[in-house]
Amino acid sequence: MNNISPTKSNLIKAKSSLELAREGYELLDQKRNVLIHEMMNRIDEAKEIQARINEYFFDAYQALQVVDITTGIEVVEEISTGIEYIDDIKIKNYSIMGVEIPEVNQVSEKIDPHYSFMRTNLSLDRAFKNFRRVVSLIARLAETETAVYRLAKAIKQTQKRTNALENILIPRYNERVKFIEETLEEKEREDFYRIKMVKKKKKDNI
Fold this sequence. Notes:
Elements: H1 8-71, H2 73-80, E1 91-96, E2 99-104, H3 122-205
Antiparallel strand pairs: 1-2
Helix pairs in contact: 1-2, 1-3
């Protein structure tokens, strides 16, 4: 504190800095809580999506096994070469408390088979339908997990800032305000005593 001049103007500045630091801490604390809440929701969503993916995968592979047995692996391999790739996935971003969150356009689960019904059966349709569901859910899972990663990163950065304000800046400005106030009070007492002594001397000289 030796490098701070204990003046009223510096006291005003110190109090203003302290108030700004406190307001900043409250805002960052609110932001952190919102981000944590949002991240926890996304984590729960990711677990739910993963469970559905596992369910559809299991059902799809069971159906595929039936197809292999009833129509033959060669037929399944031949049909698989005619299935179109899904390459029209679009991603846009939106903001949550300044954090860019991806949003993947929903992949259609509509069945549009590109194979003949002559050599196939309902099990192939069932497998095709469930794999299509899996693709749609994987897109959502990627969106959700990316959101969790970005939110976690933002929470970590926000936590560092709140810690800096709470443990460094706010205590520093508190000490600065206290030092200047105490110094000014001491100076006022000394001035008051000095004025009192001057008045007493004048009175004694009359």
